Amino acid sequence: MRETASYVGASPGAAAFTRRRLIQSSAVFFLHAALTPLDAAISQQPPTAGPTEETPFSSSLLPLGVQARFVHNINGLRMHVLEAGFEPKNRPCVVLLHGFPELAYSWRKVILPIASAGFYVVAPDRRGYGRTSQWDVRYDDNLDPFATLNQVRDVLALVSALGYRSVAAVIGHDAGSPVAAWCSLVRPDLFRSVVMMSHPFAGPPTLPFDTADAAHADTTASPATDPIYDDLAKLDPPRKHYQKYYSTREANENMWHARQGIHDFLRAYYHMKSADWKENAPFPLKARTATEWAKLPRYYIMDLDKGMAETVAAAMPSAQDIASCKWLPDSELKVYSTEYGRTGFQGGLEGYRVRWMDKYRDELQLFSGRTIDVPSLFIAGKSDWGVYQSPGDFEKMQKVACTRMVGTHLIDGAGHWVQQEQADEVSNLLIQFLHENT
Description:
Number of strands: 11
Largest sheet: 9 strands, mixed
Number of helices: 18
Oligomer: single chain
Number of domains: 2
Distance between the termini: 20 Å
CATH architecture of the largest domain: 3-Layer(aba) Sandwich
Strand content: 5-15%
CATH superfamily of the largest domain: Alpha/Beta hydrolase fold, catalytic domain
């Protein structure tokens, strides 16, 4: 691992914001691609906002120098964002995209360090999450708004509303990682660098190549008909892939109204995918087969007859372990359980469901063969199975998908929630990357 740069504490100016400066900093600009003009009518956070979707996060939930607010008319959304680094104006912008089941709040430990290094940092609750959604997301809703390219448009629209024609970096974790990757692939003129965390990006879906003289048409296998999922069900004991489970109707109900309660469900889920769960000892799989996939932990390759709530219940940490968890104390977990207790998980699950629809994969084939040509970085925890769950993707990201990959870092003492488990290390890596590549 390369020597990393250190950072200093938050500057007093980062917290000194005024209503006038907030309004000025939200002036509307047009994207120079064919985006519809967007008005950003901004509601400033009340000093003592309550825990409802009608108000931004209270300042009492956030580090000093980080504020929450709504930005309106963002690709049809009222977007809830956390931000820091307001002074001086016109700092380079860094966008942070969270994963599942997370929120913009998941970046709370790295926002200020990045801002203190000279950047304006904004982290939205992504479409379907937290206080951004203005509707109750239901399983039978139209999935089009959750298509990958529309989620890229969400980020473009936010950046435009904030008055930026380019950003220094887009950084994504977990399910936010591929969105960040697609941002930099589709609009490298706007997203000048990218950091992917915990979820390798292997490139766009491919088209059949050099098949004109083949006896039979070469077609790309549909995710919905891939035989590997039937092969998992034939194992002893029968298994299923968590992402396929997440596409089912029952997944939201199982987690939202878990028998153990949503707070304990999330505690067990975060614990089981962290470095605190000592059974996390990842290694590369030999091939994409059911027997190799069965080596993954149960939270990835589940028992066929169990939901996610039952799966993680067995890994519920003890009261002593919970009390000693410094990276996610119960008071911070309560922010997640309160938000998801209000909204449920369907908004986040929609992003998994579109992966099983041919129409959404097919529209991404427009970019078949295209690579990420801006500076890129990958960060994950050394105890994170997410690096290896799709055999070959980690290597393909470095050798094919990204032409300017400047580093990959697997951090000791971190599992899947790397920016929360090892916030200082992640902050230093991000700041070094930003200073060297933006």
